[in-house]
């Protein structure tokens, strides 16, 4: 079984993943994190990126990429096809290996969790059996991003704005609200409430398989 985790930046995807690992049998779980895969790609193609964007460090690259929408689009046009191709191949390989499995409850079978903010953009939804969409209020996400990445408010706002131009989560949420493949969790309260919502969601997914 493949479960996709998606949602806007600083909504709580990594926290969700950690809570899932705490609640499920870790021996049966594989994880693909799109952010980690993306960073590895940057490392592999760094010499080309360095020349293309005239930068000397990852920090300079990040600052340049998130300075405006054109820079972000140009960078995405370079890195996204490579990243989405890698993710798709890994999902297809896992799905192929699980094709003949007789297990139905995901606690008893091999489970792949894909943590991918751009799941919709990369057109990987069809490869997921279930998708958990995490959302939070813009105000909370802004504060979390400032604290997590040690950013000034202006920089954090710009990153959130640019990400929404790439992947319109508000629109996706409206479209997927009644999609049985999707479970939408609001992360606007404390960690205890968030963990309760995740546990309830995992129970529902298990019962509906």
Describe this structure in words.
The protein is α/β, with parallel strands linked by helices and 209 residues long. The protein is 57% helix and 12% strand. It contains 9 helices and 5 strands; from the N terminus they run E-H-E-H-H-H-H-E-E-H-H-H-E-H. The protein has helices at residues 13-23, 34-44, 46-53, 58-65, 69-98, 138-149, 153-166, 169-176, 191-207, and strands at 2-6, 29-33, 111-115, 130-135, 182-186. The chain has a 5-stranded parallel sheet, with helices on both faces. Helix 2 crosses helix 5 (69-98) and helix 6 crosses helix 7. The protein is globular.
Mean model confidence by pLDDT: 91
User: In percent, how much strand structure appears in the residues?
Assistant: 5-15%
Number of strands: 5
| Structural class designation | alpha/beta
The amount of helix comes to 55-70%
Query: Strand arrangement, largest sheet?
Result: 2-3-1-4-5
Low-pLDDT runs:
none
Number of helices: 9
Q: C-alpha Rg, in Å?
A: 18 Å
Quaternary organisation of the protein chains: single chain
Task: Provide keyphrases for this structure.
alpha/beta, single chain, 209 residues
In short:
Helices cover 57% and strands 12% of the residues. It has helices spanning 13-23, 34-44, 46-53, 58-65, 69-98, 138-149, 153-166, 169-176, 191-207, and strands spanning 2-6, 29-33, 111-115, 130-135, 182-186.
């Amino acid at each position: 079984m493949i479960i996709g985790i998606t949602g806007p930046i600083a909504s709580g995807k990594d926290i969700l993943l950690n809570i899932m690992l705490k609640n499920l049998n870790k021996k049966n779980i594989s994880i693909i994190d799109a952010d980690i895969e993306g960073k590895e790609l940057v490392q592999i193609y760094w010499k080309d990126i360095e020349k293309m964007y005239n930068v000397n460090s990852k920090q300079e690259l990040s600052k340049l990429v998130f300075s405006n929408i054109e820079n972000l689009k140009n960078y995405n046009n370079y890195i996204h096809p490579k990243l989405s191709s890698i993710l798709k191949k890994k999902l297809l390989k896992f799905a192929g290996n699980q094709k003949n499995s007789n297990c139905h409850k995901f606690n008893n079978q091999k489970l792949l969790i894909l943590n991918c903010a751009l799941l919709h953009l990369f057109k990987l939804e069809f490869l997921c059996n279930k998708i958990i969409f995490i959302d939070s209020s813009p105000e909370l996400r802004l504060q979390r991003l400032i604290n997590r990445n040690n950013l000034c408010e202006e920089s954090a706002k710009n990153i959130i704005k640019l990400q929404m131009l790439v992947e319109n989560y508000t629109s996706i949420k409206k479209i997927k609200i009644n999609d049985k493949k999707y479970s939408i969790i609001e992360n606007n309260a404390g960690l205890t409430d968030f963990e309760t919502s995740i546990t309830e969601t995992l129970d529902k997914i298990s019962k509906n398989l």
